[in-house]
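Per-residue structure
===
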Amino acid sequence: PSRKLSISNIRSGIAGAANDTGWAAFAYVVDDGVAQRKGVTSIVFRKTGGNNDWQAILIHGAINAPALGH
């Protein structure tokens, strides 16, 4: 089945003494027509090279669901 991805609450910023660190975060909903999975993703970036290029160095995704026991 096809899925629909919706993104909201996009936030971003730049930090570091040389403005060489950036971050972005957003909320998401994945809807497959039967159930919705909601969560949040955050990404940390580092400026690389001399061309003002950015590289993702950390991607964290969290789903809004009950914790499961072991």
In short: The beta strands are 4-15, 21-31, 36-48, 53-63. The mean pLDDT is 91. The chain has no helices and four strands.
